[in-house]
Amino acid sequence: MQDSLVIAGKELNSRLFVGTGKFADHNKMKEALEESQSEVVTVAVRRVDLGGDDQYILNDIPDYMTLMPNTSGARTAEEAIRIARLSKAAGMGNWIKIEVISDSKYLLPDNEETIKATEALVEEGFVVLPYMSPDLMAGKRLEEAGAATVMPLGSPIGSNRGIQMKEIIQIMIDEINVPIVVDAGIGRPSEAAEAMEMGADAVLVNTAIATAKDPVAMAQAFDLAVKAGRSGFLAGLGATKAKASASSPLTGFLHS
Amino acid sequence: MQDSLVIAGKELNSRLFVGTGKFADHNKMKEALEESQSEVVTVAVRRVDLGGDDQYILNDIPDYMTLMPNTSGARTAEEAIRIARLSKAAGMGNWIKIEVISDSKYLLPDNEETIKATEALVEEGFVVLPYMSPDLMAGKRLEEAGAATVMPLGSPIGSNRGIQMKEIIQIMIDEINVPIVVDAGIGRPSEAAEAMEMGADAVLVNTAIATAKDPVAMAQAFDLAVKAGRSGFLAGLGATKAKASASSPLTGFLHS
Amino acid sequence: MQDSLVIAGKELNSRLFVGTGKFADHNKMKEALEESQSEVVTVAVRRVDLGGDDQYILNDIPDYMTLMPNTSGARTAEEAIRIARLSKAAGMGNWIKIEVISDSKYLLPDNEETIKATEALVEEGFVVLPYMSPDLMAGKRLEEAGAATVMPLGSPIGSNRGIQMKEIIQIMIDEINVPIVVDAGIGRPSEAAEAMEMGADAVLVNTAIATAKDPVAMAQAFDLAVKAGRSGFLAGLGATKAKASASSPLTGFLHS
Amino acid sequence: MQDSLVIAGKELNSRLFVGTGKFADHNKMKEALEESQSEVVTVAVRRVDLGGDDQYILNDIPDYMTLMPNTSGARTAEEAIRIARLSKAAGMGNWIKIEVISDSKYLLPDNEETIKATEALVEEGFVVLPYMSPDLMAGKRLEEAGAATVMPLGSPIGSNRGIQMKEIIQIMIDEINVPIVVDAGIGRPSEAAEAMEMGADAVLVNTAIATAKDPVAMAQAFDLAVKAGRSGFLAGLGATKAKASASSPLTGFLHS
Fold this sequence. Notes:
Subcellular location (chains A, B, C, D): Cytoplasm
Oligomer: homotetramer
Main location (chains A, B, C, D): cytoplasm
Pathway (chains A, B, C, D): Cofactor biosynthesis; thiamine diphosphate biosynthesis
Radius of gyration of chain A: 20 Å
Protein name (chains A, B, C, D): Thiazole synthase
CATH topology of chain A: TIM Barrel
Largest sheet of chain A: 5 strands, parallel
């Protein structure tokens, strides 16, 4: 179809981005990634770098997927920049999802440090996709800094609470010109569909797929939901009404 | 797949029921019905009976669909019973969706009259699918009366307000043994997905498809959404959490 | 003030109704009832009738309060009618709150049986205040049967979930002519205020006060909240807007 | 009572802060300010400075209130700093509410510039009360910079949409040590009560009072609501439950 999403010149047919964390095993992960139809997958640079079992995680990511390494573990812009460089040096490509988090309880990203890291890494030629706390002005700064997308969280990561920050995310979708990817908090297919109906360009889902009883079936559910929400958005959603309006004619019949 | 829904011995592969009201023209309607993959369609007996253009509406309903004529226009049990008999006499089969509505502003169904009509028509051999205001005890009475499904409204018909009555509909899903079909109020694909994630057996969508800018694309969107929600339900949705929980490892890396 | 609520000729200055269940002890209860400023209190006829400690509960209810005995424990109209007669015979007055509940899990009232009991007891001269599952047509039947008020639940009793049934309760407030009292589910002062802002005539609160760490302070909080919500309703609430609108002038100053 | 709020050594008995914008006339404003029982009032420095009618606005503010001049109209930290100095020079005291807004559509504050202005003005000896877009890390920086309170918006100013940003504001209340004042968006008394129940230290309300049909009655309604919500918070709110829990005993009676 011609409704593709283009990020840094890459044409994507799926608007579902996925992650590699929390899967029970690599086989299930691989199968779920494939079933999701997703073309973009995020992986923590730290896991690849660690050695041990996890270093082979890249082997279980389908070849056709674009790798979006993330700077998980970074607490400052400087640390995020260092991780991004390690990632490129390790052959993981030039896409980088910036995560700068110093709050260890709610894991909320630090927008100010995220903006700094974005500015520096765009300068170095990275395709930068920053994860952020929803905020219009910070989003505009990320856009100005050259971010390829802006990725606000829907609710705290791993909380499965859906798009709690709807109000501000809707404003960001309306006012920011680079693609908006709703990242974190989406726990159910219906919530992914809702993000797409709001006009988001894509969603990133990890926990909800990885920790489902059946991750492969859940990956498929999210694939369908994202397509459903996007189709609904394009088909022109109706306005809500305060009163009822009959689908079938109500008068006349037996009473006429 | 083996996750079919069986109503009165009929095996259905799609859990999306659709309607025929409010379409701009019959061609668009036919195309949308087909694209929806739905196998059950409701049509007001009154429209068929009217003569004029509308009487040919049946010609534009795909052959493979099960007809669920409705008693739209009935204000009492007695009127609904009369319409049901007309429907059968006119060769529209023995399924009947009961709608008894005397409230002309919000078009909210009358549960007491609906129960009476259900009792009488089950007695006469109809497959009765009553539309109702969400209420646990009324739902149980409909079940006892022999209803094939119970169809509570999500919000007032045509309002596109989604599942406002979530609290009570969830209880009905948990406590009533015949299939629950959420009918009326669903305005967006995400809301149809949500109903399925709650464990509803099916949804009925009419206004949202018929009045979309592109009804055919919207029909497809709802088809995907219902499948997404159902798959998510079967795959085992995760619980929501008050706090965040990282998808990627957060500690150790640069700090170790 | 002249904004009093009149029920069966009785003029009430407080729109907060309270209950006597779940208090840790009678002294705390008495103090909370007084602090609530409430003038109407419900008590289960069954408790009075039981003998033992509970039979003296009436001694701890302030004299100025109107007693609204309830038929808690009734599972049918017939049982409710029997309890109402016992109540009157025991000198508890001619007000009766009808509760007919056969669902032991969610404790949702049975509207059909409630309507029957209301019809019978109005006939016998009772002032009937029926507790019910929110439903427009059932509410209209209760009004026609002569109910002094209609008391829909906000959410299942004791759940502290607030006004989950907002959609239908708003419609009942708009369409039914006797006073609407939101009963059950209200867990926080803000939710009582919200009911009043919607135009409800009164609220009944029991669990939220009785089980608070400090029931007396909580009683006072609900008193204030009900007054706040009612004042807000009368003062003319503003409409919500999709966009911002500055309170202070934004242009000109430094830029002019 | 001893539940006072202390800001910069000033003890406040009311947790309702009010504004002076949008009132139809100065007399109504004065009466509403008095009736609100509020002890803190914000006024745009720009209005005082303008000359013309508005310059006399200070005359209509009750003497006992603490003036919290605001930098409305500032689009950068630098402009906000300039306005703050003008305010002090004009004898309006050393409290300053920082508002830095360059987004003219949703009027969302610029956290980065707000932090800069806060740092500079704390340095100059001001009591700084910054208005901000809800964000945990920006809130922490404001605290570190020496802000006397942190004032996140509930929803876009003047929108009357309530606390749309509940999720993040709750986290800010839990994690930030200076008082949190929910500012902007609160349109109904129940929403003010809700903010207090969440544990907010105060709320600022302007539009909802000033534009009510009866601003004086609405001021009183908000006063009561804030007290109700605060009392409820202190009295220990109960947890919500998934199932019902009877207030009155349900078994035994007629069935025993």
